[in-house]
Structures are given as structure tokens and as C-alpha cells.
Design brief:
The chain is mainly alpha-helical. The chain contains six helices and no strands.
């Protein structure tokens, strides 16, 4: 899918791509193909989460009276997903643990996406000008290009002042590892 537009359109496209990857994992038989789909799912979820943490949640904090509470809840959701993604690393796609973990991960991600699309995004559209939403979309796209591609639970707290620098450095290392291993192709 093409990526463009405001932050809401950008993140919604990401959500549909993730839905497609879950479907691919669930409906693919060869373990090797399921493993590749799970690796791509991990890459997309990590990049998406980092971009939201760097740009969307600060905007929520700024524009919503209850923004701190909402952003903290969203960050907690991300932490749970990142832990699940870390647990998924190294699991054999042919094993029963893999299917169980994918089911838990899908439930967690689906609930998070539903909440964003039904509650957060409509409020954001009301709180921000179209220009601000476009600018956020550009920032999110840029952040995803440089974001890590592997889960690093607890390694990059979004409250840390140098989060963006650490994220970009970690992203560079992750992409180099991906290139050398052929992960995400």
C-alpha cells in the first residue's frame, strides 16, 4: 500500500498492513513462510510503535486535556506488544508455542488498533488542524524510515531526552543485521 497523507491516514494504512500480515501467518502452511511473515510483522510493528511514540503521543499530550493519561496507556500497550514480539523471536514457526503467541499478540494489537481508530483518531482530528495532521504524517513517515526493526523492550524509554538519537542508532544497527541475515526480504 502507498503511504501518504496525514498522520491518521498513515497510521491506518499501517494497521491494515499489520492485519494482512496476521492473515498471512494464519493462512500460510509452510513454516518458513510463516516465519518470514512473522519477521515482517515484527519489523512493521516496531517501526510503527517507535513513530507513534516519537510523534503521535507527544501530540496527544499537547492537544488533549487528558493527554498524559492517554499517552501513558498507549505506551503501556506498546510495552506489552514489544515484550510479546521479543518472546516471538527465535520461536519455531512450526511449534505450538508460536501459534499461541501469535494469537495473544493479535488480540493485543487488535484491541490497541480498535481503540486508536475508534477513539484516539477522531479526537485527534477534532483537536488538530489539517496542516498539523499533515506535518505529523510527514514526521511519522520519516521516523519509520530510521526506526529500529527489532524489539528492544525497555531499551528505549520514550521519556528519555535522547530517545530519537538512540532510536535512530538502534535502527541503523537493526537494519544492518537485517541486511546481513536476509531478514525482512
Amino acid at each position: 500500500m502507498g503511504h501518504a497523507g496525514d498522520v491518521i491516514a498513515e497510521l491506518t494504512v499501517d494497521h491494515r498492513e499489520v492485519d494482512g500480515l496476521f492473515d498471512r501467518i494464519e493462512h500460510t502452511t509452510p513454516a518458513g513462510e510463516r516465519q518470514k511473515a512473522a519477521e515482517q510483522l515484527t519489523i512493521e510493528l516496531v517501526r510503527h510503535s517507535v513513530a507513534e511514540e516519537e510523534h503521535l503521543y507527544p501530540a496527544i499530550r499537547e492537544h488533549f486535556p487528558d493527554g498524559d493519561l492517554i499517552a501513558d496507556k498507549e505506551l503501556a500497550d506498546h510495552a506489552r506488544v514489544e515484550k510479546l514480539l521479543k518472546d516471538l523471536e527465535g520461536l519455531d514457526a512450526a511449534g505450538p508455542e508460536f501459534d499461541q503467541l501469535i494469537a495473544v499478540l493479535k488480540a493485543e494489537v487488535t484491541a490497541h488498533v480498535y481503540d486508536e481508530e475508534q477513539n484516539l483518531f477522531p479526537r485527534l482530528r477534532q483537536a488538530c488542524s489539517p496542516e498539523a495532521l499533515e506535518t505529523l504524517g510527514d514526521r511519522v513517515r520519516r521516523a519509520k524510515r530510521f526506526a529500529p526493526t527489532r524489539p528492544h523492550p525497555g531499551a528505549l524509554p520514550s521519556s528519555q531526552p535522547h530517545h530519537r538519537l538512540l532510536s535512530a542508532g538502534t535502527g541503523l544497527v537493526d537494519r544492518a543485521r537485517d541486511f546481513l541475515s536476509g531478514r525482512g526480504e
